[in-house]
Amino acid sequence: MSAQRRLQILGNQLLASSSGNPIARQATAASDDACASVPYASADGKPNSYGRVHGAVSREPANWRRIPVVAREDLTDVIYEKSIGEGIAKITINRPERRNAFRPRTVQELSWCFSDAREDPDVGVVVLTGAGSLAFCSGGDQSVRGQGGYVGADGIARLNVLDLQIQIRRLPKPVVAMVAGYAVGGGHILHMVCDLTIAADNAVFGQTGPKVGSFDAGYGSTHMARLVGQKKAREMWFLARLYDAQEAHRMGLVNTVVPLDKLEEETLVWCREMLRNSPTALRVLKAALNAAEDGQAGIQELGGNATLLFYQSEEGNEGRQAYMEKRPPNFSKFKRLP
Ligand SMILES: CC(C)(COP(=O)(O)OP(=O)(O)OC[C@H]1O[C@@H](n2cnc3c(N)ncnc32)[C@H](O)[C@@H]1OP(=O)(O)O)[C@@H](O)C(=O)NCCC(=O)NCCSC(=O)c1cc(O)c2ccccc2c1O
């Protein structure tokens, strides 16, 4: 983060504290905004110790910079940006004339951007959203649907959004869906596979597949059942109804609902709060929460994190060092912890 940005954020925090109790003020501002209030202050309005240490988060707008995806073609269906001076990448599906429906090209571009965000050590959180306020994403573009999938410029039918779902789940950083308008069909599944969903009060959620002759029997069904329960998941799929943001919140599909004009502001606050926390803790927690659903693939992901941490330890390095020095390893000095 640049010194200028740090000063700016510090300034905002000081500003908050100069107008009284920063934590209580944050809670008031949040409830004013119909955002979730946080129990960082005791009943008398004094911040508790958690609030004193971890309270106020900047509500400043981000300074977004467009990012060319290096060595790949120009993006046509997606906008990729990073917030200058802080570790937030934003990926925007940019087909508002089709309610941000995705075609194979869109999915390919999304995949490029998620790869970049994963590889960039300065990125700590990724936001996925849709252009405009009418839709997050309306799923697969039915106008290019052919036999066996959605047909790209190469004439090949693909269901490549399934690979994108896995890429989002496997990305070892939090991915936040920022949803305004419709998140339906394959677009609804995209928000579900993100780690968190911040919804605008105009958001609408649902699975339309059974009405257009489609279904997602993978994460779209099984992960949904984990989120909303078996009965509700069957209702969502079998009846193919649409649900407003408040109902989606009650169902456990989204983390919070905010007024449309506060959507990005609130999303940035959630991102900034996560960025203040240990990236390794978040990484391993994401892998653990995935592992509970993903069978051997989930254990592999979680296990990879264990290896990553072990490689950073003296004990792990002793094995490598011994090999390089052509001597037997000496693990005797390492304690067997209870
Ligand atoms: C999303 C809507 C409810 C919005 O309704 P609204 O009245 O606000 O807007 P319009 O309907 O007038 O839309 C404006 C404009 O956009 C076009 N459009 C919208 N969505 C799509 C779409 N998905 N594909 C193509 N075009 C779309 C619409 O035709 C209009 O164009 P005009 O030229 O007429 O102006 C409503 O739009 C709606 O219901 N959309 C369809 C939602 C839907 O059924 N999506 C597909 C579900 S199936 C799916 O997504 C899917 C994809 C996969 O890749 C899978 C892979 C593997 C397994 C399963 C998959 C899967 O199920």
In short:
With 338 residues, this protein is of the alpha/beta class. 46% of the residues lie in helices and 16% in strands. It has helices at residues 3-18, 22-32, 49-54, 104-119, 161-170, 186-193, 209-212, 219-228, 230-239, 245-251, 263-275, 279-311, 314-324; strands at residues 64-66, 78-83, 88-93, 125-130, 135-137, 145-146, 149-151, 157-158, 175-179, 182-184, 196-200, 204-206, 242-244, 256-258.
Question: Care to describe what's here?
Answer:
One of its GO terms (biological process) is menaquinone biosynthetic process. Residues 319-338 are annotated as: Disordered. It is an enzyme of class 4 (lyase). InterPro entries: ClpP/crotonase-like_dom_sf, DHNA-CoA_synthase_MenB, Enoyl-CoA_hyd/isom_CS, Enoyl-CoA_hydra/iso, Enoyl-CoA_hydra_C. This is 1,4-dihydroxy-2-naphthoyl-CoA synthase. With 338 residues, the protein is of the alpha/beta class. It folds into 3 domains: 3-54, no CATH class; 64-275, 2-enoyl-CoA Hydratase, Chain A, domain 1 (Alpha-Beta Complex); 279-324, Lyase 2-enoyl-coa Hydratase, Chain  A, domain 2 (Orthogonal Bundle), CATH 1.10.12.10. The protein is 46% helix and 16% strand. The protein contains 13 helices and 14 strands. The chain has helices at residues 3-18, 22-32, 49-54, 104-119, 161-170, 186-193, 209-212, 219-228, 230-239, 245-251, 263-275, 279-311, 314-324; strands spanning 64-66, 78-83, 88-93, 125-130, 135-137, 145-146, 149-151, 157-158, 175-179, 182-184, 196-200, 204-206, 242-244, 256-258. The strands form 3 sheets. The chain has a 7-stranded mixed β-sheet with strand order 1-2-3-4-9-11-14, sandwiched between helices. A hairpin with a 4-residue loop joins strand 2 (78-83) and strand 3 (88-93). Helix 1 crosses helix 2 and helix 6 (186-193) crosses helix 8. The chain is globular and about 65 Å long. The relative contact order is 0.09. Residues 1-36 have low confidence and may be disordered. Ligand LTTK3YTO binds at residues 98-99, 101, 138-143, 150, 159, 161-162, 182, 184-186, 208-209, 212, 214-216. Residues 98-99, 101, 138-143, 150, 159, 161-162, 182, 184-186, 208-209, 212, 214-216 line the site of ligand LTTK3YTO.
